[in-house]
Amino acid sequence: MRKLARHATITDVAALAGVSVGTASKALNGRGSLREETRTRVKEAARQLGFEVNAGARSLHSGRTYTVGMITTDTIGRFSIPVLMGAEDALGAGQMSVFLCDGRDDPIRERYHVKTLLSRRVDGIIVTGRRTEARAPIAPALPVPVVYAFISSTDPDDCSVVPDEEGGARKAVEHLLAIGRTRVAHVTGPEHHHSARVRSAATVARLAEAGLSLAGPPLFGAWSEAWGRQAVGMLLAGGTTFDAVFCGSDQIARGVADALRAVGRRVPEEVALVGYDNWDVMAQASQPPLTSVDMNLEGLGRTAAEMLLAAINGTPSPGRHARPCHLVVRESTTVPLLPA
């Protein structure tokens, strides 16, 4: 009968690293005041031996479960999934697991999820959703740290990590100005929507700094391709002269591109076009592919998770933390160079 291989133990790790069992335990569980060289040597010994720290034992030693809850109101996942991926990148480095809960914009369901996560003794909670406007805190006086990601909390003492939507809109306008466009129309989402208002105001302000104004008033409507098509009809019917359109979302921009093509207006030769969100399925499938503002949602999720880990370890970061957006330039604003 073949003899089963013996699993490596903490004693084996300590022997290979040349330290005591107590020191090896502290190094692997992130406790104690050890030199970084010692921690590295112990972790390398554990890797060589294939030793895995027992999660139950680690919890008993530290009083933590190494789990985090994430509550989202984004049922489609358009915004929350990239945030979750970024958060998992950061939490995975700390060997932490995530419980994902769908709140569906239902306060009763949210309270149930909070109660369930606390019963599982999570070390902290990340709250996210599909809109950036501030919301009421998910619950009062929770016993664990909470970080709001993409959305923000109305309580200034809470930690909120949000995209700098204003800065993203300004970068879009600056790009249009840099390629010589001076008659910029703006088509965006519902006027009651926080993101639509912020992006529109930033667009108007940046043009004013350049001594320009919008080509007609901002057009508020739905976050849809259909609205983008309708908006082009309104611009043309009203006799608006424009050489660029900055849209509040990629869905709107794709509709604008379709409508401009239908009436024979070439993009970008006659009309440059910029979207917002850098949603691959929209931006890259558009004809031509869209230049778009990317909110770097994965990076935002990583930052939120890192701030949550810091809060769990006793270093909270209250307040609203805005992360920069960046512009992804594609063919809707750049005319390709032809070979000589």
Automatic annotation (TrEMBL):
One Pfam entry name: LacI
PROSITE patterns registered for this protein in UniProt: HTH_LACI_1, HTH_LACI_2
Segments forming domain HTH lacI-type: 8-62
SMART domains per the UniProt record, alphabetical: HTH_LACI
Keyword annotations of the record: DNA-binding, Transcription, Transcription regulation
Domain of life of the source: Bacteria
Gene3D superfamilies according to UniProt: 3.40.50.2300, lambda repressor-like DNA-binding domains
Coiled coil ranges: none
Protein name: LacI family transcriptional regulator
Species in which this protein is naturally found: Nonomuraea composti
Taxonomy of the source species: Bacteria, Bacillati, Actinomycetota, Actinomycetes, Streptosporangiales
